[in-house]
Amino acid sequence: MKKQENYTKFALVNEMFEAVDVIKDFHAGDTEGVIDEIKKTSRLFFTGEGSSRTFPSKNAIEYGRKCGMALDMASEGSYQACEYDLNSFVVFAASNSGKTKETLTLFDGLKTKNHSNLYGLTANKNTPLEQFCKQTFVLGCGSEDAIAATKSSVEQALFYQSLLAKTAGGELKNLDKLAPAFEEALTVDIPVELTKALAGAETIYFAGRNNGLAEELAVKVNEIVRKKSDYLEGTSYMHGIQEVMSPKDVVILIDPYRSELKKTREIMIDQVGLKVFVIAMEDTMFPTIKVAELGELTNYLYLAVGWNVLVEAGINLGIDLDKAERAQKVGNVFGS
Questions:
Q1: For residue 19, what are the domain limits?
Q2: Which pLDDT value is given to residue 61?
Q3: For the segment 151-194, what is each residue's pLDDT rounded down to a tens digit?
């Protein structure tokens, strides 16, 4: 992805690059109150819809578990969460618009039950979400014009991860190195063979850990490249789905398990005949786009490279990256 007119004429591309400044300027704000409540309850629930939940919440949960935090953490969409007993949880809802119907429905119900630990994360001030929350945090990224959420989901993820780091008594490591590494990942050259493969693909699969990253990129395929996609958790691509894959498909592995690369080649290439690419920190037996190693923040670099890949594919296909035919910026507005 380049900072050239044929790229930057799209709001989507500009907002991806603006994520670099979002990282540079990131500050979580006054989180002492919610941290105290998390420590008291030892239970934290993340909710929201789409890109406001997938990567931000699941990335945070992975981080907390890798750090050995003794927190009961979970994440679900808001309607499913309506069916849960969340009385003992600190509940965090992310909604950029502050108007998301599913999320406000959940918080309305919890408020009616006198739930006292409801918190919001939004990109706008004075939203309907605030009336239900004990405290609402407003992102500094500003509004987005593109259909696909980009810079907002990066800031949401940083907020949640920073919140957990502070709850554990520390700070995020390598945050000062993230912005330049993120920009490098956004602008790294994408192999022509990958761009061509995506342009001709029938279905594009992203495979990776259940940390919201590959799952989020699979959705971005729909929004940016306008092709069918699927998220394959872990090594699930070895356990049945290969039966319906075809040589026209493409699989992109995010930081794959090295012990399974040989088996992956046997199934995906030798048996199915499709194309496999990798985004990782080092070379693999497959064509690989490499990112820097930033410890607990490396996931953001994988995300940036994923965006880069999909924009290149979209540009190659001649797609208007900002003009969706059916998708809307706020998919389901409260009161509609």
A1: 5-172
A2: 98
A3: 999 999 999 999 999 999 999 999 999 999 999 999 999 999 99
Closest CA to 138 of 90, 176, 95, 105: 95
**Same domain flag for 94 and 240:** no
Strands 275-280 and 90-94: unpaired
| Bridge partner list, 205 | 230, 251
pTM score over 0.70: yes
For the chain, the domain total comes to: 2
CA dist 154 and 19 (Å) reads 7
44 and 162, same structural domain? Answer: yes
- Are 247 and 148 members of one domain? no
Give the residue carrying structure tokens 């965090």: 92
Has residue 253 got a pLDDT over 90? yes
Q: Which of 184, 217, 212 is nearest to 292 (CA)?
A: 184
Helix (H, G, I), strand (E, B) or coil at 204: strand
Both structure tokens of 319: 């797609």
The Cα 125–Cα 109 span in angstroms is: 22
pLDDT digits (tens, 9 = 90+) for 293-306: 999 999 999 999 99
How distant, in Å, are the alpha carbons of 121, 135, 172, 179, 207 from that of 31? Answer: 12, 9, 15, 23, 34
CATH of the domain at 70: 3.40.50.10490
Per the domain annotation, does 335 fall within a domain? no
Tens digits of residue pLDDT in 212-234: 999 999 999 999 999 999 999 99
Supply angle C-alpha 123, 119, 54, rounded to 5: 65
Tokens of 98: 């502050």
CA 12 from chain centre, in angstroms, equals 15
